[in-house]
Amino acid sequence: MVPINTPLLLLILGSIIASLCKVLDGGFGRNKLNPTVLGMLFITILFSNNINSYLNPYELNNINIYSIPKVTNTSLINLFLGNVPGGLGTTSGVLSILAFIYLTYNKVIKWRLSISYILTIIIMSFILCLTKNISLYFIIYNILSNSLLFYATYIISDSTTTPLTNMGQLLGGIISAFLTMTLRYLGYFYFDILIPIIILNILTIIINYFDVRLYRKKTLKKVFVGVIIISITLSSIYISRNIEGYLFEDKYYLILN
Fold it and tell me: Which of 40, 96, 113, 234 has the fewest CB atoms inside 10 Å of its own CB, making it the most exposed?
């Protein structure tokens, strides 16, 4: 998840923080927060100068993490294969998809979280395409960029720190995707996935509590899902109206040509 040029001491520090999180939060299988994400956030926030630049595969020099959405020569095929700046093992979309299929087949991950997360990203991206009058290729860009498929496969679908029930997992994926799109286009691109995961971990307790009580009340659940869908639609329109216009110029998103 980190740049290849990350100092070894920072990797050790991040691992210590992750381990302490797991131990102090109940131990293996009982932790409420994702230790990997916490360790990553810790070293990223405190040592941003050492962790916010990745190797540019086109020019073999470092590029600031906040410029990744604007990298020249970016194409959908490069994003799909992973030939873009990013974490050492997170950029390849095709490998993430294959891993998702394998892990789902072996019942290792909560696939509903991943699917609802990606589908919500697609829906919100589609709304942005309509309201901003841009190419539908933008939808694919949102799915493949910033290692989103990697996080959807390995991190968001974590079996310990996410909702227990099927409905809760669908809701968790929707909430995470909404937060991701909000941070991506109204906040900080780099934290658009890490922070939503932590928020989901915190909300999991609440989701599990209410989902168990609504287990047999299908009508209420349908109304609740309807409210969520309407909220996401309205939020997407709000994002499109408040987003910085330069993000959609062709000189930055060459893949939209």
Answer: 234
